[in-house]
Task: inverse folding
């Protein structure tokens, strides 16, 4: 996990810049992956490695394997080499490689991150919690937000490995968007307990802090694979409640139920169906917010791939259909 | 379909009042159903008929069948008879029956109806339409709302035969609730075209005006059964658009798409999946509003059946689970 | 929950005995349910109530409601009355009712219970745990079995509200049967970690101690409905592990995974699919043992209903098919 | 859409002929697609483009991009170049490219088309309609067939973008085959209304005239994607009926129902299940005729790929199984 | 199983006639079922038994149990008694009961049977077989039809216990209807091997001769339940082929495949999907013919229940939808 | 099928050895597949062929096609050539090819085979059968095991084409493992008929002897594709029983039922669901043994691919999840 941003040196060279440097020497910091030694015809060996940052990835070769320093997949390394083209694709023939020092780079340059300000979103989140009238729920959420380890993670965690909000700060961005929706819909449906609904927004994915790891790439932890964020989240909430004075038993059951049921269906990994109004409503909001973000990403991807704004996207697997950006169509 | 309310005489006696009149003579207006002549031991015949109003239903007998006047199932009749108890259930032994005259009763007394003011909701609906900035969509909706036949039906239609909002004015109530949700969520997601979304709210179920009949009971029409409200609605919109000047072709396709996809899944009868952001969002709002109303009805039913407010309801078939009213639980 | 058995007075009269007492006075202890006051023709009231014990249930009436003492559904009461027949069914016309005192009855007479000795099964369970070579898993299980509150509940809990092993001691009986299967199959598949597999057998349903209540009838608790035995069990294990010294983190994840995945499929309420050999194997054993018990019960029910041993049972809903007892067929 | 056939020059050279011209100069007309300019090592650019006709497709290069004339994907172009082999695949190195003039080619040479005579099938279709005894249905179908725009499209439309009958004239071929089946089965089942059944055969896919576009390739229109051929067809029928005198309302509902239900299941995009005998029967015939054609295509494809006639085909995705041509097997 | 018809005495009195005999003495032959002795208040016993024939069923009582002769459920008995009405339903108070002698009744009067002539249908079936040009298939079918035991059963077997064609002669009626469809469609699709397709029509359900029993009621045999008509049929065909000279191996596999795949889907009990054109086609024809017959039965049932010919039927469970008789609608 | 092992010459060179011979001449025996002649630039032809043995596969070229001798895909050939590297992959440029003589090789070297001794497993199987107390079942199994053709096949057949136990001797290995499980579980559940259960273990997949072919590769036979091992097995058992004296009819039905139901679900190709305790139990054991073997194979494959023992495998398609080897994890 990263700590506070803004204190690191700017990254000079991104993968997407490399097209401008064909046949030139370049120097830069990248994350290594798929490191492999392969045999040459003369039985000596060369290094094949992929370099990546948050803008993309490139295949590289270092022909003199004896010069390769000590590094592992996932490490940030500093490299120097010649950008050239092989079988119509760019690659870098590396001359030098060394492990980057911790202070030389900002992790945020290597993985995608939110376009919103984390500090602003964090303030927004705290503002919502401060507005609670239910003292027990406010105390529970403060116990999470005032826990420095959790707060540090919550400011940076992605909301997913690969689907919606899969970037640094994505979980926080998703939570804050949901809190806005909760505010609006709780007014529309007066039978809804606003604080309970908002508690679901803050805690429903809290287990992702331990389900996912987000260093130079996003991945599942062993606990994430075998236990999953829903059950991890339940355990985290049980643990915090155990430290609070006189948290009502019924309220505890309701909060756990909101986490357990937020995927809405058994086949989506929820061991309980939503059985209270707040759980039914929250399941819709959570799913909706994810889908809205998925559509934004797909429209951006289609545009990047050269589709006209009034064309349908290709088949979107996550939604099992192609999509159409209404804005593009209405403007033509 | 009913015309304007408030001009009819008050109904004096409701089915739910009858327990107070056991062993007494009563007179009142009710809707007839399940009318049948049965043989007595002496081979003469008697009449068996059910009488109903919006509060319930009761089995009745008229032992002298020769006195039975001319009426059909679905007619409102005026009856006189003795309330008695047979095999632990109340019934009325009828002495007199006659067909009620049109001016003698208010249809609204015989079927469930909304607790909100229809005039107020109608004004709210018109207010939303007046706020449109898209002149084409505004013109389309005005074409519907200014059509006296449609307006008359839309003020009274139920939203369903038996599930959510199954009462006079239910469709209008559902539309107005959706328009409120559209206003809120269109602000939350700036990529959403507010007027297009609201057009879906007004028109998505417009085909129910011809799918359902709502006289003294709610039922499907033949067209409703064999064509269905989605396709009827599409035809109604096509017909109105054909009368408008220069309605843009692309916009026409989007409006039709919103109607066709609003059930969200093929297996729910939508021949198209939502493929534009407004359709994706609207499907969530429509489904959510129906579920919130279903929960309200189920909690009311459970309370009427004597459940404590902090108890789970029985199995709710429409949602395939039991439900729990959070309010009841949190107050204990 | 009941405490130690064998110290209570024998129950003299069971529901199944009543056919021998038609038109006679009887006295006995039963559990009350469906208590209701109904109006008589003369507007006075009478009591309608169902009486039950572990052999069955009967409808009763007490015509003089003023004599009805103070009791609630679920209470054990002592009654005196006349067994008679009304519309071809037996009922009791009650003369006297009073609440039973705690010492007057054995709860076990009112709910079905295991035919095996609880003490023997408890010893068997402890013997298996003593045989563990993995000190961490042995310590974890001892923490459960040595917890007096848990042990007391575990000796009596049913394994289900209505399906397989739905009787007092049923959960323990199911666990002990599974431990036997674990012993056998762990030998057959040497890659299986026997102690880990047996830990699953003991803990997989431990959450049922809080999911179910078993007084005079079996029911779900609120926590059972909204949280469920899988998540309750996870929390109970997390809590016990937190009190142990140096329980290995990976082992903790594996134990939690075994509980979370033991239903084998998402649609059966498991939020995780079995991903380790012990979890895959355990899911088969658990499901198999439940099905074998279901078949035993169905064959007993069919026999009780007068089916010949070589006839198929009626449709068995829990297995979506009729069944045939091979033993009966092979002997003919 | 194409206009009348037979007036265009013969195409001299097809993609499948090119193997005979390796290392020779060729000249011919083809449809362009995937047109792209790519950078050469010396930073100048070359053209990469695919050329196709109804027999197949080939990758081409034009190394001097400055000679590339003005054309778009989908255009028919005349090219001259050298057929050569690169990495074991044929390609053409182009010397000259120019846009073809409308009179120089027959569109039918560039897309697959029916092997039957369109004029003969058209006459057959009209013969069936002339045989109707139901004057209303005959008038409705004549309104379609006498509409020059519709008739022109109906003579050439494919029945699908990619599955069964995906060729010029495919829809007409499918309709005529269905009419034959309707004639036979209406005799077998006397309760069937022959004219109503045949009306379904003619109109069930009429919306495909606007769902698909078939110029130099087959594709979905925007209306096709967002509205779909079922709903388009319903609107087309409503529009024609509105222009007819006194078309019976019930008959109108039945015709719409036949179109709406012809896919037979919700999950196949039918918003209504077949509820009348003609709809149930027609759904079987439509599905059967498509499957029979799919099998013919798959056997032809397997034979082209060198399978022996008595061998099973590879996995056929559209039917989720491999297939076997009985004829081939029985002859061995 | 019955042998030749027409040699038995006419049945004089049917269940449906009894309404005309209220309060009169009647005498007649009926099938007994649900025979039971029950206790009277004075502890003596009375007989309760249901009597049935192919037109319906009635509850009966014989108050003096000592007079009840020896008979079992399923037996045809001759009874004498008084038709009276109890709680608005007719019943017979029996005075005399005796077992009917084999020659006194025609089994066909007690179970529903085809309205077509069995002899005519048998001739039709043999005519189709005689028309075969494939000598092997003709020999195979003759081996079945010339087997007296099989022929006797095939002339009378129902096609199902409760669904379509559930009457004596129903299987033969279904086969003959299918043969007609085979003739028609084999002409329409020239790639179809007519004799092979017709072999499927004759043999696909041949296992029902051992799956079902049809004495005085229709039921499953043990072999029917545990093995099923598909596998029984395969074994019967294997057995007949083993007795034929030089039946080609490939043809044997195709015939077995047609039987195994005729239900079309795994979930309908076919262990193989149709993989040859004849199997694909036959699955449609078989399913279609069953559905057409189901619709006929449902329309007859609705009419019997008093529905108007232009009304939708109630929900038809076998087809999961209500149905509408087009004929009724078009005539109004 | 192979005959007795141990009499063939050792294979000297395996595919996996070739990396040690880069740029060297090699000679060896391999199975040919994908034999194809391709055109060279000068219009002469060269041979492309794949060579395989049980350790892997390699692409080869023979540039002088005139030297290619006569052989077909599936034949074992002896080749001589130079191992070289083309586009980073090894291939052999062949100089000589000739068909291998039957005595020159052991088929077992060319396809994967069990690591257990076939003779030992065969003895184990016979031991189990000798222990039967049910004389009919013992006679039935002896009829199979004493049939030399069946015994020869059963000793070598794989249990599948590609999934679990897909190697020579795999079916026997699977049977023997199941017999062990049957012994254990029949003791645990005393209501189980041990001999009947074991009969299922031996015969459930007996139809695979004709469903699969296993020469130099594993494949489906035509009968396997169109009839399937379940129905083939049923026919084989029917045939053997027909030759036995007085095999009880009910027992015959039970044995057939065990085969027909052993896949446990319709969608897995079982035309009958397990309806007797032995069938229910056997379905679990069969599925379990397959899954345990699948996991072993997947862990071996992951290890071969360089995964650490405590890492999750990649997605395992046959089980629709990734897997984790507990042993690896617990040892870290």
Result:
């Amino acid at each position: 996990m990263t700590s506070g941003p803004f204190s690191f040196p700017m990254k000079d060279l991104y993968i997407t810049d490399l097209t401008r440097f064909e046949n030139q020497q370049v120097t830069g910091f990248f994350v290594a992956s798929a490191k492999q030694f392969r045999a040459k015809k003369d039985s000596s060996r060369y290094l094949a490695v992929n370099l990546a940052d948050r803008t993309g990835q490139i295949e590289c070769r270092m022909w003199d394997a004896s010069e390769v320093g000590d590094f592992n997949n996932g490490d940030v390394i500093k490299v120097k080499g010649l950008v050239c083209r092989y079988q119509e694709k760019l690659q870098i023939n590396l001359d030098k490689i060394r492990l980057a020092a911790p202070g030389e780079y900002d992790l945020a340059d290597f993985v995608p991150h939110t376009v919103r300000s984390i500090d602003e979103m964090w303030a927004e989140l705290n503002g919502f919690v401060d507005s609670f009238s239910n003292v027990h729920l406010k105390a529970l959420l403060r116990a999470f937000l005032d826990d420095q380890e959790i707060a540090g993670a919550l400011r940076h965690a992605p909301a997913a490995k690969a689907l919606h909000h899969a970037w640094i700060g994505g979980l926080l961005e998703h939570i804050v968007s949901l809190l806005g929706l909760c505010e609006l819909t709780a007014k529309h449906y007066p039978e809804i307990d606003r604080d309970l609904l908002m508690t679901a927004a803050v805690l429903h994915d809290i287990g992702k802090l331990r389900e996912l790891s987000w260093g130079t790439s996003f991945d599942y932890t062993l606990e994430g694979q075998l236990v999953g964020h829903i059950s991890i989240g339940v355990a985290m909430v049980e643990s915090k409640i155990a430290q609070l004075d006189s948290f009502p038993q019924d309220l505890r059951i309701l909060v756990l139920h909101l986490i357990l049921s937020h995927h809405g269906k058994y086949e989506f990994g929820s061991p309980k169906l939503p059985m209270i109004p707040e759980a039914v409503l929250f399941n819709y909001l959570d799913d909706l917010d994810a889908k809205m973000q998925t559509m934004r990403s797909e429209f951006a991807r289609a545009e990047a791939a050269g589709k006209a704004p009034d064309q349908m996207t290709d088949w979107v697997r996550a939604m099992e259909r192609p999509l159409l950006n209404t804005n593009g169509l209405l403007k033509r």
